[in-house]
Amino acid sequence: MDIGKEIKDQRSFFAQRREFNFFIEDEEITVKTDDLPPETSLNYYIRQKLHLTGTKYMCNEGGCGACVVAVTVTDPTTNCDTILAVNSCLVPIYVCEGWRVHTIESIGNEKKGYHPIQKALVQFNGTQCGYCTSGMLMNMFPLYELGDFTMEQVENSFAGNICRCTGYRPILSAFKSLASDATPAVLGSYADIEDIKICERSGKRCFAPCASKCSKKSQPHFYSLQSSKWYKVYSIDEILDVFMEAGESSYQLVSGNSAKGVYPLRKEVDFYIDITCVKALLEHRMEGDHLVIGANMTLTNAMHLFCSLATQHKQFSYLQKLADHIDLVATVSVRNVGTLAGNLFTKHEHHEFPSDLFLILETVGAQLTLVGVNRNQYNKNLVDFLRSDMNKVVIKNIILPALDETYRYESYKIMPRAQNAHALIHAGFLLKLRDNSIVTSARLVFGPINPNFIHAKMSEEYLIGKQLFKNDTIQRLFHYLDLEIKPNHVLPDPSPEYRKKVAISLTYKFILSIAPESKLLPNFVSGRSKFVRPVSTGTQDYETNESLYPLTQAIPKIEALSQSTGQAKYIMDTPDYPNQLYAALVLAKAPANSTILEIDPKEAMGIKGVVAYLDKNDIPGRNSFTPKEASFMFVTDEEIFCSGHVEYYHQPIGMIVANSQYIAEKAAELVNVTYKRSSEKPLLTIRDILSNNRSDRIKLDDELKATRLGEDVKHVIKGRFDASTQYHYTMETQCCVAVPEDDELTLFPSAQSVTMPQVTAAVTLNIPANKINVIVRRLGGGYGAKISRNSIVSCAAAIAAYKLKKPIKLSLPLTTNMNIIGKRLPCSMDYDMGVDDTGTIQYLNASLYSDLGYAGNESLGNALLNMVTGNFEHDTWNMKIFSTKTDTPQATFCRAPGTTEALATSVSLMNHIAVSLNIDPVTVYQNNFDKQQPNLSKYLNDLMEWANVESRRKDIMNFNLKNRWVKKGIAVVPMGYFQILFGNWNVYLSVYQSDGTVAITHGGIEMGQGINTKVAQVCAHALGIPLNHIVIKPTNTTISPNALVSGGSLTSEAVCYAVSKACEELKQRMEVVKQTMDNPNWLELVQACYMKDVSLTTTFMFSSSLPDVNAYHIYGATCAEVQIDVLTGQHNILRVDLIEDTGNSMSPHVDIGQVEGAFMMGVGYWTSEEIIYNPEGELATNRTWNYKPPGVKDIPIDFRVKFPKKNPNPLGIFFSKATGEPPLCMSCCVPLAIRNAVAAARTDSDATAEKWYPFDGPSTVENTFLNCLNDYKQYKL
Question: Which residues carry out catalysis (predicted)?
Answer without folding.
Answer: 1221 (proton acceptor)
